[in-house]
Write a structure and sequence with these properties.
Oligomer: single chain
Shape: globular
Strand content: 15-25%
CATH class of the largest domain: Alpha Beta
Number of helices: 26
């Protein structure tokens, strides 16, 4: 690429000089003739060069258009769909190439170029909110020399005066703007396109590291930072999604983004998100002079502030500090993709100002993804509780991102074929989101002919039964419902924390019980005796008593947990809770038709069909009876309607309610057959307006949505 740009810099003067250089060596009588000759030579050379230049220009222009189209598509996949298809590093490299082309050809820059946008499209479903001050993105650098160039630009723009840098870890999450008035939290907004974001207040409220009140009398203050998902929460969430046969999140950032965009705040609350504060937006009456002072004040406000920041006066010390994280960042309990370098003084920041899209006083140093090459020693297959066969690459041990990697998931048969991964291949691996080992690609050029193409087994590796691949699915499944491996996984799920929560009954003990023929299904757990347990390895009388107590306690966890614990396909914790509230007992649920089930919010045809099929099976019916006989409570407090005043209504509450709390009003609507949502859309059927309503009220008027006052709402409730 560099050679192309150098060629473009060659001009007419350069060619003319090289063409005529020989004329000075001839006599006076020959010089005029030689000059005419040189003009002919120049004309020929210039014509040929112009052709080359035009060809290169056409190639560069085509590449520019290609990059713009590709980056726009990737941005849509990343920001709007939350489904990235390339690594951050690959995206950054494409973006950098586009920037270089546009720098070489400023006249090619157009307003619709990705380099001229602050952010990307906003996904629908939430009310829009305009930030007081734009939430600008940061410029990226990828090398020490680029950091030094940034430092030189900053010092030059400041006239050589002394300055300080604050260097912070770049948290890999979702940027959020928190708005406080008189110390009270009133709104949480996503970054969006940098100017307009999405109002996700109800979801933000569930994040425990965000204070609902701060010690500030400011009429208006915006606190900005990053919502992220701790690695332990991310791993637990992905395991749950795999158990529910849902696609795992690619990395903690996407998990955090998906969690904040949930329409049900209860789901967000379960995701155990966290928040680091690091910036100030629009504000009134706030006098803070530096980034370091701001971080200290944010901590005093009881925000979580990342402690791993440092202050420096020399860029070389900054670089040393950044590289000190090369071998340490993998030990952090959260994901980070780089470091942020900021001019400390707010006065100097103001003088340096911003471009249209980025601040001139800050830069992000992006960590390159750590990759390693290793050998695929074999491909093994494991079984999940639903009987799905999952292949994994058994690797020659290799050190990667702070750990020794011996195994990497290969997801399914299609994944292996798409990447052409063979036993014996040399492959490139990296950790997806710095967390999960994954095979990036195979290296066919390193094959010696001994490699073997992998084929999924035709029989179950655990029980020898046939396996099948259903139409429309990528997974192969064991056909034997009594497969010991499947039973073991089902029992392990049944006793897990979010299911029956039988503390002390781990995988190893489950396998002992199965091996000793003491249990054959989940119901047999409730028939275990003290005498049977003390005979097991690792058990004494006390540990046996404790386990039996935990088993007895689990009988009363309620229908919602039981439904989740049973491992009914597609029925996760949320669906279990909805079904329990809707039917009140397992007996009522077992009699429900597909039509009965799909009439319930959040229960779609796929879940409904799975439930009907599960309870139609005679073995599952027998299991329910065994659990009942052992005293397992399979009832719940059914959500009953007071009346049908709001039947079929989709209600939005806005403004300050005087007669009810927001929660009381929502419960009142739901108890009368209605549903409350957070944003006004074309589907909204009624808006209840309290004091000082905002944009929801205006939008309702614009759409012609029926609007009632709080006093009218109270009258409706009393009908």
């Amino acid at each position: 690429m560099r050679n192309k740009y150098l060629i473009m810099k060659i001009n007419e003067k350069t060619i003319r000089k090289s063409t005529s250089s020989g004329c000075d060596t001839v006599g006076d009588g020959q010089r005029a003739s030689r000059h005419r000759c040189c003009e002919y030579v120049f004309a020929d050379k210039w014509e040929r060069f112009s052709g080359i230049k035009e060809e290169l220009m056409d190639t560069e222009k085509a590449r520019l258009l290609e990059l713009r189209k590709k980056i726009d598509e990737l941005s849509y996949q990343y920001y709007t769909l939350d489904k990235p298809t390339v690594t951050d590093y690959e995206y950054d490299m494409m973006y950098r190439e586009l920037e270089n082309i546009e720098k070489a050809h400023p006249d090619w820059v157009t307003p619709d170029s990705p380099t001229q946008r602050v952010g990307s499209k906003i996904s629908g479903g939430f009310e829009k909110y305009t930030h007081d001050r734009p939430m600008l993105s940061l410029g990226d650098v990828f090398s020490d020399d680029e950091l030094r160039e940034f430092d030189q630009r900053v010092r030059s723009d400041l006239g050589g005066e002394s300055l300080e840098y604050v260097v912070e870890l770049k948290i890999d999450g979702l940027a959020v703007n928190l708005i406080y008035e008189q110390g009270q939290f009133i709104r949480g907004v996503t970054r969006g396109d940098g100017v307009v974001g999405e109002d996700i207040t109800n979801n933000v409220r569930t994040i425990r590291t965000i204070p609902l009140h701060i010690a500030s009398d400011s009429p208006h203050i915006e606190i900005r930072g990053e919502v992220y998902m701790p690695i332990t929460s991310f791993e637990a969430l992905n395991q749950q999604r795999r158990d529910d046969e849902l696609e795992p999140f690619a990395n903690p950032r996407n998990a955090a983004a998906g969690s904040l965009r949930q329409l049900d705040p209860r789901i967000t609350a379960q995701r155990k998100l966290a928040f680091f504060a690091y910036a100030l937006g629009g504000n009134s009456g706030i006098d803070i002079k530096s980034q370091e002072e701001l971080l200290q004040d944010l901590s005093d406000f009881h925000f979580q502030v990342n402690p791993e920041y440092r202050k420096f006066t020399d860029i070389e010390d900054v670089i040393t500090f950044i590289h000190s994280w090369d071998d340490r960042r993998d030990s952090l309990p959260y994901a980070t993709d780089g470091m942020v370098v900021k001019v400390n003084s707010f006065a100097q920041q103001a003088r340096l100002s911003n471009t249209v899209k980025i601040p001139r006083w800050a830069i992000a140093y992006k960590f390159p993804p750590e990759q390693a090459q290793t050998k695929v020693l074999g491909i093994s297959v494991s079984l999940g509780r639903t009987g799905v066969l999952t292949p994994a690459a058994d690797l020659k041990p290799v050190h990667l991102a702070g750990t020794t990697v011996k195994r990497a998931t290969l997801h399914n048969e299609d994944y292996i074929k798409e990447k052409d991964i063979r036993i014996g291949d040399t492959v490139v691996i990296q950790k997806a989101g710095e967390i999960i080992p994954e095979v990036v690609r195979s290296l066919p050029e390193k094959r010696d002919g001994s490699e073997k193409v992998f084929a999924m087994p035709t029989t179950c590796p655990a029980c020898g039964s046939p396996v099948v691949r259903r139409e429309g699915e990528a997974a192969w499944r064991c056909t034997n419902p009594d497969c010991p491996a499947v039973i073991g996984e089902k029992i392990a799920h049944f006793v897990s924390r979010d299911a029956m929560n039988i503390d002390g009954l781990g995988d190893a003990i489950v396998q002992q019980l199965l091996a000793q023929d003491l249990i054959h299904d989940v119901a047999d757990i409730y028939a275990l005796t003290k005498e049977e347990l003390v005979d097991l390895e690792g058990f004494g009388e006390k540990s046996a008593d404790n386990l039996l107590k935990a088993i007895e306690t689990s009988k009363s966890v309620g229908l919602a947990r039981v439904l989740f614990a049973l491992g009914i396909r597609f029925v996760g914790a949320k669906a279990g809770r909805v079904l329990a509230e809707s039917f009140g007992s397992v007996d009522a649920l077992m009699k429900a038709s597909t039509e009965d089930l799909t009439a319930i919010d959040d229960i779609g045809p796929r879940i409904a069909d799975s439930i009907v099929a599960y309870f139609r099976d005679a073995k599952n019916q027998a299991l329910i009876e065994k659990l009942r006989a052992h005293g397992v409570d399979m009832t719940a407090e059914k959500k009953t309607l007071i009346n049908t005043t709001f039947d079929g209504e989709i209600v939005v509450l806005t403004g300050k309610l005087q007669m009810f709390s927001r929660k009381e009003a929502e419960q009142a609507v739901e108890a009368r057959g209605g549903k409350c949502t957070s944003s006004v859309t074309k589907k909204t059927t009624l808006v209840v307006v309290g004091a000082d309503p905002g944009s929801k009220y205006e939008k309702a008027k614009k759409l012609g949505t029926p609007i009632i006052s709080e006093s009218e709402f109270k009258e409706w409730l009393e009908r």
